[in-house]
Amino acid sequence: MNNVTKQQFKRVWFITGASRGLGALIAQAALADGNAVVAAGRKIDAIVERLGKSPALLPVALDVTDEAQAKAAVAAAVEKFGRIDVLVNNAGFGLLAAVEESGDADVRRMYDTNVFGLLNVTRAVLPVMRKQRTGHVINMSSIGGYRAAAGFGVYSSTKFAVEGITEALHAELAPLGIHATVVEPGYFRTDFLDASSLVVGKDIIDDYDDTSGKVRRFAVGMNHNQPGDPEKLATALVTLADAQTPPLRLPLGTDTLKAIADKNAYVTAETQTWKALSQSTDFAV
Questions:
Q1: Where do the structural domains in the chain lie, given as residue ranges?
Q2: Which of 10, 102, 142, 194 has minimal Cβ neighbours within 10 Å of its Cβ?
Q3: What is this structure's pTM?
Q4: % pLDDT > 90, the chain
Q5: Could you tell me the CA-to-CA distances from 195 to 20, 85, 190 in Å, in that order?
Q6: Which CATH architecture describes the domain 2-256?
């Protein structure tokens, strides 16, 4: 039965956070492209309501912070479709607050989802891909995963972690025929800036009004006015999955491209300014 299923679909995708937002759009784009999709989320009913029912769709209950659930969801995927070709680690949420304003409970909950949850799912899927000697791990980062900014410092730190994990995976998995890519979206017109996806720190410190406070006000005006088209992002991920030699990093959005160029220029200039001191710390030859 599994052999028939394998031939029926182009690839088998496993997508976390697939009940809404970018995850649901990526699932829809993958299904439209002739793929099978394992759509993972906390509530199966919400997945079915958003994506409908199809022989190509397997909704699975998954809280990514639960390692046992991750393993069970992967086992269900393999039982249904026989393989997993593309993993999209999309589940996550943001925290808008200065670093000092970021409460311990919010920070730990965000790390549990954005970092440890991603690791739970990745560790569950990789034995399948290693056995196949093929696959593609796609980790959703952010414009904030390449450069941190006031108001999003701790959130950015979770995405910096995702960047580092993916960079190492890229090196570790390449000899096994498995790709790893970190995707860096800028501001896309989703619900990311809504309360459903973004926690806003409650302990506001007046001294940060010109920095994180300004970002809080900016986020209110930017909500649902972001420049990025989320449906085009979903289509871009299908194109990424089709690439024979996918990149380690895929920035998406002109705002991300500008942020990368600006940071690279800043780092180059600062490195040059402090080069003599940097070089002075080696043992004398």
A1: 2-256
A2: 194
A3: 0.91
A4: 80
A5: 14, 33, 12
A6: 3-Layer(aba) Sandwich (3.40)
